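Many introductory courses stop at the sequence. We go one step further.
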Amino acid sequence: MSHVVIIGCGIVGAAIAYELSQVKDLKITVIDKQPPAQASTGAALGVLMGAISHKIKGNAWRMRSSSIQRYETLIPELEAITNRKIPFNRQGILSLCLSEEKKADWQKLAEIRFSQNWKLEVWDAAKLKAVCPQVSNDKISYAVYSPQDRQLNPTALTLALVDAAQRNGVTFKFGVTVNKTPTSTNWCNELETTEGKITADWFVIAAGLGSSLLTAQLNQMIDIRPVLGQALQVSLGHPLGDRNFQPVITGDDVHIVPVDNGDYWIGATVEFPNDRDEIPPDEELLKKVLTQAIAFCPELAQATINHTWSGLRPRPEKRPAPIIGKLPGFDNILLATGHYRNGVLLAPATAYAIREMIIPNDS
């Protein structure tokens, strides 16, 4: 029986654990120095931008589309197994456009999506006003509606993945830190951790920002840098617009996310390290995000701010995100890290890719 050790239990590590737990004759252990769904997962808004993204071919599009399709079955599957409720908004994403400049590009993308059996609709200002009266801004020229894109609660999903994986026999060890990684040529046999040595046949590094330190111990450092994101939750007391149509509304890189009856998440900032490699949260940037959300939906000015939060996203330096594949120089160390702002979106596809590397041709 092969033993797989997964390092990291955010959304990506948890998704890999659950995916592998369905393979016979695998022993799976997940270790993390924190409880599950911390770091970037705990701060994510869970907006799944697939059809509305401008990725149209290659692996980038395949991963997005396959992940969103998998979520349609994964959410009810996990809810049935664990008896946990996972908030999952199936009412799509509405992107607000402030200029006519790119309208032809959106219309072309809608044609491409139609050929790919996906839907994308370009609404004029009159239709936008009729369907979403809460959007009230004369600068909005038109909108793009993606009915098949989704939004979910990343923390609830991660905890359900952990629960389901445990039911399938996966062992989770939280509060455990990797101290050392002894290796031989092209092979890693064991980890030295704060809980003792762990031997395994495969190691999967899904530790987000912690991946850089782990790979540095193997003399193959993968450079992943932090990017801070801040968000806030507000309470209006009633839904914006039609209570029966509550899509995610996005525009100018600001998301307005329905999370409950009259509660909304709003975010997120994108903040890079300063010259001292520090990222102190910029309160003014968060205020600008809220101001922009209010400009799109003026009724939000009456909302009460419940709380604010922030998280660090793992962004690969000088290479595309995410990083999925073998660690250079090693045959049994796999990377599933550096997803930057798309960890929740790409978790199912990442999990399947890791499964294929460990169990090739497994159906």
